[in-house]
Design goal:
It is built from eight helices and ten strands. It is an alpha/beta fold and about 200 residues long. Strand 6, helix 6 and strand 7 form a beta-alpha-beta unit. Helix 3 packs across helix 4.
């Protein structure tokens, strides 16, 4: 069983962006372009878009008559072309290398093809259990994705440790019933079971 800070867990469930890798430069570049196209307040959007499915953010900020599906497709295409500045979080390669395939999963709000491109960019493997935007009907902060990952691994969600960096992701992990390790500065340390800056 994998362990973290002297506690054993059935499995580790990782968010991707901000948790395994830092894609914030690319993400914010694309969203700023989108906001400019539609005269939407970029700062307000960027404050809440991390960890949330693109289509859900589009829906939240949509102007009257906007085609949600078309705009989500534009964003997806733009993100697929922009991996400049995407880097791994310190120490994650060693942590992942020490885990068996049935001991970890990724639960990301990104679409699968974008997630695979970002993982390849930083040299991380695609796990056997890989829950992406297409696999859920409700995105984070809904706990559906984390519960699905635990089911696919054949473990109880209560025995899992979720690694998350965003308010929506931390809320999803807690709602699922897992312990939560907060990675980075986006969520107050007091919100999680653990708080880390990286995996060193």
């Amino acid at each position: 069983m994998p362990s973290f800070q002297d506690t054993s867990f059935a499995a580790f469930l990782f968010d991707m962006d901000g948790t395994l890798l830092d894609s914030s430069e690319a993400v914010e570049r694309v969203w700023r372009r989108w906001c400019e196209r539609h005269a939407i307040d970029a700062e307000a959007l960027i404050a809440v878009c991390h960890g949330v499915r693109g289509e859900d953010t589009v829906r939240r900020f949509a102007t009257p008559g906007m085609d949600i599906d078309a705009e989500a497709a534009w964003l997806k295409a733009a993100e697929l072309e922009d991996v400049d500045g995407v880097v791994a979080i310190e120490g994650i390669h060693d942590l992942i290398a020490g885990l068996a395939p049935d001991q970890w999963a990724i639960v990301t709000s990104a679409p699968r093809n974008l997630a695979e491109i970002r993982l390849r960019t930083v040299g991380l493997p695609v796990p056997d259990v890989f829950v992406t935007a297409e696999d859920v009907t409700q995105g984070k902060p809904d706990p559906q994705g984390f519960r699905l990952a635990a089911d696919r691994l054949g473990v109880a969600i209560a025995d899992c440790l979720v690694f998350e960096d965003s308010p929506a992701g931390v809320a999803a992990g807690k709602a699922a019933g897992a312990a939560v390790a907060i990675v980075g500065p986006r969520v107050p340390a007091t919100e999680g079971t653990y708080a880390i800056t990286d995996y060193r």
